[in-house]
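Protein modeling request. Please complete all fields; requests missing the sequence field cannot be processed.
Requester role: graduate student
Desired output: 3D structure, token encoding
Chains: 1
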Amino acid sequence: MKSLKSVLPTSNLKSAKTLALAGLFLPLMFTANGTLAESSFLSRIGTAVAGALPGTEEYGMSKKDLVNNIEAVESSISACMRENGFEYVAVDYRTVRQGMTSDKSLPGMGESEFVKVYGFGISTLYTGHGPQISKLRTPAQIGLGERNVEIFNHLSKADQVAYNHNLFGEHSDATFAVALETEDFSRTGGCTRKAVEKVFKPEQLKTSYRNPKDARIEQDPRMVAALGKWSERMRAAGFDYSHPRDVELDIKKRLDEITGGAPVESLSSDAQAALKKLQQYERAAGALSVELETDILDPVDTRIEREIW
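Delivered output (309 residues):
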């Protein structure tokens, strides 16, 4: 019998490879003279393969789904805020995406420098006030869009409080762009929460949800071993975590327990001391986690992703 390479057009070899990697064992049909059956069969294989692989964007979405979901959420937020008597301009995909890609960075400060100074930017950038009035161009502020920042800043102090309570609920740092980038909708509230509940699946709103793409990569024995090394190094430094995602979730949980979403200046002296301690912890844990991700996890992740996608 002829080899698969000799009878399968080059354009279809990648699909065959992907098919094997996806673990789908479908029979290949050959005609009597040893050539592969007509292309319609290959087309069906390609469709099966495409359906088996999750998208590479957040929550396993394709680029098209990501754009559509962002537009749907923003439109819903705008309608919800309008119903509550406030103006909110639905933010376009490009602006939300800019807020997402600004995660762990500030203008003029790349990720490596940012992490050394702010850790993940969770407790270290926490003020208890809305991101609209931050002196720093944070990812949360960027993702809201300039027009919405202007609208907020023209409100009275009392209306600003009411505005953000309607928009974010208890946690004004849990903006849509930041929550989408970190794949953590658990702290969203207000109109933002109502909007994501309409667009995303219930299981995607839980902290236990895993991006299908990440979950698939993490099943690979090479990544299992790499995560073991990451965890071993973190524990040796005094940080008891099994996965990088757990570090940020833990810091968010501790922050909420300390502040309850209240402004820093209104916290008790004990709470402010606890916040400072958490900030020190975040800087140390964040810097080490990102360093180990870069050195240990990223090369393995890239290798596996190239093989599958």
